[in-house]
Structure formats: C-alpha cells, structure tokens
Amino acid sequence: MRLGVDLGFDAVPGRPLRAGEAQALDLHTIAAALRSPSRFRALLRTRSFKEVVVDEGGLPLSALQAVALLSLSAVRAQQFVVDGRSLGRLGFCSRALSKTIRAVPSELVHSAALARRVRRVARRHYALVSSSGTPRSGLYLRLDPSLKWLGAQIGGAATHTSGVINGLVDNGIAVQVLAPERPLGTDRARFSEVPVRRILHLARGLSYSDYSEALLDAARGMRADFVYQRHQLGSYAGLELARRLGVPLVLEFNGSEIWVERNWRSGRLLLGGELERLELRNLQDASLVVVVSAPLRDYVLDQGVAPERVLVNPNGVDVDGLDPYREHSPAEWRRRLGLSEMPTVGFIGTFGLWHGVKLLPALIEAVPDARWILIGDGVLLSEVRDEIQARGLSDRTLLPGVLARPQALELLSCSDVCVSPHVPNPDGTPFFGSPTKLFEYMGLRRAIVASDLDQIGEVVEDGRSGLLCPPGDVEAAADAVRRLLSDESLRERLAENALQRATSEYSWSAHVRRILDALHSLSALGALIA
How would you label 155-176 residue by residue, b for 16+ Cβ within 10 Å and e otherwise? Predict the structure, then answer.
C-alpha cells in the first residue's frame, strides 16, 4: 500500500487516489492535524504503508511545508520516495530535519524583510494621477500564486479575471497580462508568465508582498496607459507600478481580508496592523476602486475614499462564449449526455454557507419527479451529500464535484431551471456578493429561481427575468421551481428576458466600458478642478 503526499501550496484536498495509492494527503490536511495530538495520531499513525511518496511542490519549502515533511517521519512505512528519490527511514528523517532547519530561519528572514517593505509602502502617499488621456493600453496584474481552485481554473475569481481581460480587448485596449499562468480564454491579450519564487505561511499576506516584488521586476521596461490590479491582502504591485509609469491605478476590490479575519475567523492575524494599513493605502491612493456591490462600496467609503473614485460594477458573463450551449434545448443536452428524460434543476457554485447549499436537500425533497444537478465542491459538500442520501434522494441527484468549465456548462445546460438559493451572512452583516452563477444562468438562457437578497434582487427582476423568493424559505423556492417546471411558456419568457438583460447590461464588454467611462469622468473632473 502506498501513501501519496502533496506538500505543494496549491495541493488539491481530497484528490482522487492515483494508481497504487491506499491514501492521499495534502499540506493543509497535515497542517490541521499538527494542531491536535489525537488528530495527528489518527492521521499518520493508524496505518502502515509499503512506501510514502512525497511531492514537495517544486518551490523552496516554507516553514510549514518543512514541518509537515518532518511530521511524515511518524508514518509507519518501509521506504520513502521524495521527488523521485528513494530513501530509508533514517535517510528520510535526516533529509526532512535538514530542510526544516534551513526553511524556518529562511522564512523568518524573508518575512522580516517583507514586513519592513510593507511598512514603508503603507506610509507612503502615492498621489497617483486620475487619468493619462484616452487609454489605449493597460497592464493587468493578478497576484494569486495560482489561478486554480481545486486543481482547475474555475469559479467566480477565474471567470472575472478572464472576463475583464477580454472585455478590455473588446473595448480596443491592448492588454499585457502579468500572472503566474495565463488565464483561460485570454489568447487575444499579451501574456508574461511571472513565476512564483516562494510561498510564505507564517504571516498570511506576505506571499502576495513577495509576489508583488516579482511582478515589479518583470514589468521593468513595460509601458501602459493604466494599471489594473485585482487586490490581495499584502499586495502593492499596482501602487508601485502606477507610480513608476505615472498612470492611473484601477483597483478591483472584492472584499477585505482584514474584515473577514475579524468578523468570521479567529481575529488573530500576524502583522495584522501593518497589513491593514497597506490595505488602506491601496484603497485611498488608487485612482479608481471598482467593487461588485453596494455593501462593498459602503465599506470602501467608510475607509475614507471619495465617492467619485468608487465604481459599483456587478459581475458579468461572456454571452457570446455561451452561444454553443444555447444552441440546444435542455432536453437535447440531456440526450447528448446520455441522461434519461426528466425535468431537471441545476446549481453550480462553491459548497459554502452563504451559497445556501444546506437548503438544497430539503428543496430537492420538496420538488418530486425532478432530477437535480449540483456542480461544485467545498467544505459543506460531504454534509449536503450525506443529507441527500439520508433523505433517499440520491437516485435523482447528480453530484459530479468540480468539473472543467466546458464540461460544467454542458451539464448545467441540461437544466430547465437553475437555482441560486443564497442566504444572508450569519452575523447580520450585509450580503456583499455578486454571484457569478447568476450571470452564467442568464447567459445560458435559463429560467432562474433566486433569493431576493441585496444585489441578487436587483439583477433578477421578479416575474420578468426570474422568480425571487425570501432568503432561506425552502417552501417558497420549491413553489417557484415547481411553477416553472410545469409552465413552459413562463419558463421561456423569463429565460429570454434574462438573456436579453445579460446581453445589454452584464456582458464583460459592458462591464469594462463602465470602468473606462469612470476613468474618463475622473479625468474630466480633474481638469475642471484644475
């Protein structure tokens, strides 16, 4: 029996077993077990293996990765294979200990240097320009060490990135993308791969600071009329690059990690004060801050940003890119994919609390004689799956997990109705999301049942482009789904109206046009004041 261990920062939790593996572990699972002796024993001491095969991830080990590697010495195994090299227990322990002795002080030194850099950037007033005339070129910066989630470029962040880049191109902007990997579907933009040099785990956010330095090095000699950066905790590449070029910075701000840490997590964040001041510097000095919802705008305004420098710009959809999926009816897609003919309801998204996935089992039960396709993964997937099984609903529920985008869209296209059952934040704070799934449903030309919750209730017009229900009301949502499944003409009318609205208001081209118009308005305002 073989134990496979992936210590890479982008390791996929719960990946399928490979040939010859009896068990697979990832960095984050091991790190969680290290916090509890009983969990550690249960994870690493309850089974014996012929060999342990370890993938270190290809980058210099962080302190956390090195300690996780060293912890594997506790596994009962005949041999260890590390990056293709076979070792006995003594050789493995010696190697792991040596790497840990080097990795821990190395990360401390790098973290201290980056912390000093963060403090300097946070104290600096950048005074960036609002406009440099009619923009014809832009630099797009993506700070994430990987654009993948659960092993693939999927999800709202990846969709938004590709959408904005293509929207810029559609609006006549020559785009240069700097990122660790090319965003899917952005072949019309120029791309520079900027490799990740290291990952730091002691202080969350410093990996983005380190990658900011890598981006700034890679951008030397480049020119553009503006810089566009998707904000991340600890990042400052956009500020520095816009100052260097003397051009505006458009900062895409999807939420505050500082706020999330204080309100939804432990509240303990190493270097939290420094990282908070850097976040404020990004917000207050960016030429234009783009947010996806009104609650996020309110948060940004509370940080002292002038209202004229904040643009509320909901998510969007590549309407033209969905043409192939609209060419066939749901029934035709079911035949093409070999599914039995049956009214079908679809959902795609993260299995997290605010997506309302805990309501799905009861909703499925309340809509008999319908198949449900639930695409995605997340922390609540196993709980939802177990509840579906306990209610005896597994025979008419498909849970394929994470799929590549083309396969996900094909399966979603089998749906007559698509649902977006979001629920309010449990702590009573405003719902600040702009669910990408909503716009995808519209672009697919599908009838929608959604929660009447903040922006969702603004994007979906009740009775015109979808049906809205009180958040968390399973019976109301079930009534709406049953009504749509039984009324084809209503289904068709709502789906067509949804597509028309997606085309006119929520295409990525329209999304970017609003950003360019806002930059133009800032330029005109600056000229008037001068």
Answer: bbbbbbbbbbbbbbbbbebebb
